[in-house]
Each structure stands twice: as structure tokens, then as C-alpha cells.
């Protein structure tokens, strides 16, 4: 069987190091440089010929995407047997359809460029929309953060548990959590004036005397989530916690979280966050989940055991 080699892009180096450690081997040696005008260059400092190469890089900022494309191209030109992109956070996923005239379907464009660069497989977690898997003509391993969050929630040992969707778009994700815990769910229905600005919100369902857990895939400015938390508390919730996979946390997100009614916000390390800024934010690592998935993919085994049943 061909050897596994794991490499990290600059956007996910800490997570990649933890994944490699969980897998049981060191990160591969590579060099990424930037010219004075911002142009990136990349090279592998060891052979990858005939190897199964796994490249770990979230694709949020544009530099991360360009670096990932260079890493794929370099591996293919160096005769790697296969190239799997391990993308903990798949950037541009929120632009997955034409919701108004004359806009790009950026999630599909990202799929096109990754495949054009030579990716043989994509491994990711909690895509903004499940149908993005269909944008690819290569295998996509779509992991879920539930396997990380569910044990955490169990350890809380909360009574009168109820799950909440911060908006209508996250109801499917929340329903799966509620079903697993045999709990009820409510929905916070919001109306937006424009992106990142909420005009109004209302709770569909009863949270009186309940310990509420909000679940979402992305937390950006934290406007929707914190408004939902505050509203749920007003409606009689005993406590409100939030579990979000991808902590973009842009703008005033940290301040919004700290000043909200949230008891805690639990996120993953798919995106590196600022450390020591907020005592409410807890980070659960994805390293073991991805390490197990890499091993199973390399051994041609099913990854279904990694999902909460």
C-alpha cells in the first residue's frame, strides 16, 4: 500500500499538526513563500512520488485558497499517487445558489477550481448546504461536527433540554440533534434588511423553563446567534448555549458574544480564533475526527462509523 503523507497550508497549520499527531506521523516538510507583491509560491521539500498526499487547509481568506491550489498542483506535478484536500472549513459555501440576478455561485466555482488544480478527493466538515457535495465530480467525504459536540452536550447533563435553530436555514441540522437526544426543538425566525443586519426575529415554540442549545454551522458576526440567545432568554429559557462548527468571528463578534445572554459558545478549530479574548468561547478539536477519517480513506474503509447514529 502506498505511503500516507500529510502536509499543512499556513491557514490550518496548528490543526494539521494535531491531526498528524493523532494519525501517528509528523507533518511533511514543505515551504511556502510570499513575494513582496503578495504572490505566493509553494514547494515540497521531500518526495511525494507514489504517495497518498493529504493537504490540510481551510479555504476562508483568498490566500488560503490560492496556497491550497498551489499545493495540489505541486503534488500532482511531483507524481503523487493521489491528492486529497482536507478542508475543515469550505469557504464561499454560503454562496451556493443564485438567490438574486447576476450573482456568482461561488461554492460551485470553488469546486471547479479545486478539481481543475488536480484534487482527487475532498474531505470537509459541516458544509453550509449538503447539496454542495453535488458540485464535485470527485468523491466528497462530508464529516459532521455532531460526533464532537454530542459527547460535550452529554457531559453537561442538562435537564429539560431543548434545541433551537437560530434561523430557518439551520432547522435540518438542529432536528438531527433533537432527534438524537429525544428532545424538542424551536426555531428563531428572522427577517433581514441586508447581509449581517437583522430587522426582526421571533421564536416559534415554547422555551419556558428549558435549557436551550442553539446549533449552527457558521458563526460570523454573531449577530443572529446572540439576538436569538437574548430573545430565548426573554421567553423564559433557564440557560442558552450555542454550538457552532466554523468560528469566522468577524467584525464585533467577540464583543457580541461577551455581551449576550449566552452561557458559552462551543466551536471547533476548523478556523483559528483569537485566544484569551472571550471566556465564553470554548474550542473542541477536530484533529481526532479527521485523523480517523484519513486512516479509513487510506485503508479503503467506510467512514460511516465516524457519524453519530
From TrEMBL:
PROSITE patterns, per this entry? PRPP_SYNTHASE (PS00114)
| Matches recorded under CDD domains | PRTases_typeI (cd06223)
- Please state what the protein is called: ribose-phosphate diphosphokinase
Q: Which SMART domains match?
A: Pribosyltran_N
Q: According to its UniProt record, what is one Pfam family this protein matches?
A: Pribosyl_synth
The answer to whether keyword Nucleotide-binding applies is yes
Q: Which organism is it from?
A: Reichenbachiella carrageenanivorans
The Ribose-phosphate pyrophosphokinase N-terminal domain extends over 4-118
Q: Does the keyword Lipid biosynthesis apply?
A: no
Which EC numbers does the record give?
A: 2.7.6.1
> Which keywords does this chain's UniProt record carry?
ATP-binding, Kinase, Magnesium, Metal-binding, Nucleotide biosynthesis, Nucleotide-binding, Transferase
Alphabetical list of PANTHER family matching this protein: RIBOSE-PHOSPHATE DIPHOSPHOKINASE FAMILY MEMBER, RIBOSE-PHOSPHATE PYROPHOSPHOKINASE 1, CHLOROPLASTIC
Amino acid at each position: 500500500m502506498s505511503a500516507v503523507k500529510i502536509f499543512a497550508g499556513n491557514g490550518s497549520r496548528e490543526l494539521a499538526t494535531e491531526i498528524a499527531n493523532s494519525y501517528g506521523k509528523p507533518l511533511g516538510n514543505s515551504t511556502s513563500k510570499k513575494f513582496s507583491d503578495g504572490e505566493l509560491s509553494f514547494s515540497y521539500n521531500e518526495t511525494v512520488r507514489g504517495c497518498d498526499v493529504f493537504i490540510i487547509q481551510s479555504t476562508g481568506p483568498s490566500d488560503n485558497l490560492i496556497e491550497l491550489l498551489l499545493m495540489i498542483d505541486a503534488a500532482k506535478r511531483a507524481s503523487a499517487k493521489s491528492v486529497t484536500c482536507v478542508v475543515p472549513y469550505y469557504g464561499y459555501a454560503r454562496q451556493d445558489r443564485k438567490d438574486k440576478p447576476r450573482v456568482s455561485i461561488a461554492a460551485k466555482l470553488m469546486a471547479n477550481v479545486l478539481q481543475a488544480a488536480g484534487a482527487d478527493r475532498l474531505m470537509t466538515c459541516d458544509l453550509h448546504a449538503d447539496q454542495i457535495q453535488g458540485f464535485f465530480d470527485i468523491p466528497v467525504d462530508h464529516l459532521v461536527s455532531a460526533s464532537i459536540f454530542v459527547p460535550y452536550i452529554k457531559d453537561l447533563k442538562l435537564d429539560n433540554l431543548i434545541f433551537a435553530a437560530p434561523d430557518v436555514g439551520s432547522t435540518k441540522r438542529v432536528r438531527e440533534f433533537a432527534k438524537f437526544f429525544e428532545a424538542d426543538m424551536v426555531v428563531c425566525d428572522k427577517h433581514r434588511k441586508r447581509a449581517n443586519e437583522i430587522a426582526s426575529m421571533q421564536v416559534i415554540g415554547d422555551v419556558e423553563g428549558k435549557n436551550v442549545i442553539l446549533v449552527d454551522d457558521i458563526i460570523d458576526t454573531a449577530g443572529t446567534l446572540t439576538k436569538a440567545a437574548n430573545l430565548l432568554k426573554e421567553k423564559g429559557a433557564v440557560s442558552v448555549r450555542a454550538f457552532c462548527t466554523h468560528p469566522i468571528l468577524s467584525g464585533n463578534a467577540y464583543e457580541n458574544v461577551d455581551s449576550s445572554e449566552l452561557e458559552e459558545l462551543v466551536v471547533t478549530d476548523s478556523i483559528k480564533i483569537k485566544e484569551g479574548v472571550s471566556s465564553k468561547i470554548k474550542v473542541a478539536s477536530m484533529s481526532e475526527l479527521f485523523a480517523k477519517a484519513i486512516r479509513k480513506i487510506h485503508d479503503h474503509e467506510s467512514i460511516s462509523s465516524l457519524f453519530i447514529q
